[in-house]
Each structure stands twice: as structure tokens, then as C-alpha cells.
Design brief:
single chain, mainly alpha, 7 helices, rod-shaped, about 0% strand
């Protein structure tokens, strides 16, 4: 005969309830640990994201124009210098005089780019500023230049004399 005490139905129900609550408590502790770990990982990911954004912004600031962009910018500068030279003379002049004045204005454009973007060479313009730099060059007008940048140099005057180009109106205007 078994001497094990027989539990009453109420005691069995209470023990089952106690066991269930203990399991729920254990599960709750594990879930809290998982949530804590997820929060820590999330915080690390947010920190990594913020650091990555900072590094990306630094890279954008440090990347200079590419060779292709520099070629395009150089082409825009040349075209704008020619356009400004035509506007300055207002009539056909010899190729030599035109080339000398266009070269003079080209240097002036590069000077303006350097001042605008705080660089010593147009090659140091940031890649993200390429479009703005191109637009800046294309927007330049004769009125944006200083008198010394528009004046006729002694060499240009000699060239004009040599080819019979009448530039007397410019010699008077930019003294």
C-alpha cells in the first residue's frame, strides 16, 4: 500500500497555478534580458549610423573634382572667356589679339573661382561644388571683373597695332 499523501483537488490546482506563475516569471526574466540586448544593439547601430553619416559628410567635403569634371570646367572657362572677349571687343579682331585677351580673361575667371571657393587651384574645388562652380563661371559678365582684368595690356596693344585692330575705345575706357 502506498503511503503517499493524496493531494486534494484544490492543492493540485494551486500547485499547477504556482508552477505556471513560476514559468511565466522565468520567461519574463528571459524576455527582459532579450529586450535589454536588443536595446543595446539598437543603440550601437544608431551610434554607427551617426558616425557613418559624419564620415560620409567629411568625405564629401574632402573629395576634389574628378579629372572628367576638371576637363568640363576647363572647357566652360574657355567658352566663357571667349564669350566675354567677344563682348569686350564688340567686333572682329585679329586671332592673336583675341587669343591674348581671352587668355587674360581666362586667368581672371580662374582667379574668381579661387576666391569664390577659397582654393588656390580650380582642381581643389570640392566635387559636390562642381555644378555650382560651372554655373558660376557661366554666369560671369564683364561687369563682374575688375578694371585691371579688362584693361588692354601693353602686349595686347602691341598686337593690336601689329594687326591693325582698332581698340582705341578700350584704351580710353580702361585707363
Amino acid at each position: 500500500m502506498d503511503n503517499t499523501p493524496v493531494l486534494s483537488k484544490e492543492n493540485k490546482d494551486l500547485e499547477v497555478l504556482q508552477f505556471t506563475l513560476q514559468r511565466q516569471d522565468d520567461q519574463s526574466k528571459v524576455m527582459q534580458e532579450v529586450i535589454t540586448a536588443v536595446i543595446e544593439v539598437r543603440d550601437e547601430m544608431v551610434e554607427m549610423r551617426d558616425e557613418t553619416k559624419k564620415q560620409f559628410e567629411l568625405m564629401k567635403d574632402e573629395n576634389k573634382i574628378t579629372r572628367r569634371q576638371s576637363g568640363k570646367l576647363k572647357s566652360v572657362v574657355g567658352k566663357q572667356a571667349a564669350k566675354l572677349t567677344n563682348a569686350l571687343f564688340g567686333k572682329k579682331v585679329s586671332n592673336e589679339l583675341f587669343s591674348k585677351k581671352a587668355g587674360h580673361l581666362t586667368r581672371g575667371i580662374y582667379t574668381k573661382l579661387g576666391i569664390r571657393y577659397d582654393v588656390s587651384s580650380y582642381l581643389d574645388i570640392r566635387s559636390i561644388d562642381f555644378g555650382k562652380a560651372k554655373d558660376f563661371v557661366e554666369s560671369l559678365e564683364l561687369s563682374d571683373f575688375e578694371t585691371y582684368q579688362l584693361r588692354i595690356t601693353d602686349k595686347q596693344a602691341e598686337t593690336a597695332l601689329k594687326h591693325g585692330d582698332d581698340i582705341s575705345f578700350l584704351l580710353e575706357e580702361f585707363k
